[in-house]
Please model this.
Amino acid sequence: MKTISIAEFETLVARNDWQREQDCEVLERLDRQVEEWNEENESFDLNDIPHVFGLASKTSTLDGI
Model:
């Protein structure tokens, strides 16, 4: 493993030729119903709240590193 200085690290971070890749995978999607009080008509409304569960990754590479 090569050790670099802070200045070298800052120079690497500042470069604009990074290759970025992101990916996501939805594993499960569902709607959950909740009751909320409606003041106007003094009754409960059923509202759907969407939920999505999954995985995501973001990778940045520079010159194959």
